Amino acid sequence: MVHSRIVNACSVAVGAAAVQGLHAQAKPPVYTVTEIDVKNVDAYLKEYTPVVQPIIKKHGGTLLAASLKVTALEGTAPKRVAINRWESLEAAQALYNSAEFKAAQQIGNKYATFRRYAVEVAAITQIIGAVQLSASWQVPAHRTSHSVGRGAYAIRALPDLCLGIVSGRLGS
């Protein structure tokens, strides 16, 4: 009974934090994925990337991944992929529509062909991930001794789990 009250309190805390997070986050983050078929790797890396990467950073983009090592799981993989994070779709669009980026892209077009798209992340997916984690959380088997029962361990550990979910340390 005590355990279920704590679980219910945790659920309320997670729900309240989720609602607060939704109100605080006006726009969810956006990720741009650029698939690049590089024709001349040396020239691309020497002439284009040193020019375009500072422009992306200046406009608020955060490079998360970029590699010439792309493995196809289905279909044909491009020769290179770059993934950037943005605070909003508008921020990403502002970069790609800027004269500065378009000038850099002229250099890139000499050495590669590009396919670029944005993926918007809904705030609700972050909340669902946290709720799924709390629903599937289990007490480790090694904590089931007679001296410390499974329920006692769960009750002691639940506040830490709640704090982890609410603070974002778990469920990402």
What does this structure look like?
The longest helix is centred in the N-terminal third of the chain and has 23 residues, at 2-24. The protein has helices at residues 2-24, 41-58, 89-97, 99-111, 123-136, 150-167; strands at residues 30-38, 62-67, 80-86, 112-120. It has a 4-stranded antiparallel sheet. It has 6 helices and 4 strands; from the N terminus they run αβαββααβαα. It has 172 residues and is α+β, with helices and mostly antiparallel strands. It folds into 2 domains: 14-25 and 124-167, no CATH class; 30-120, Alpha-Beta Plaits, CATH 3.30.70.
Q: Count the domains.
A: 2
CATH topology of the largest domain: Alpha-Beta Plaits
For the record, the CATH class of the largest domain is Alpha Beta
What is the count of β-strands? 4
* Stretches with pLDDT under 50, minimum 5 residues: 142-172
The percentage of residues in β strands lies in: 15-25%
Termini separation: 30 Å
Summarize it:
The protein has 172 residues and is an alpha+beta fold. The protein contains 6 helices and 4 strands. Helix 1 (2-24) packs antiparallel against helix 5 (123-136).
Task: List its salient traits.
4 strands; globular; 172 residues; four-stranded antiparallel beta sheet; 2 domains; 6 helices; Alpha-Beta Plaits; disordered C terminus; alpha+beta
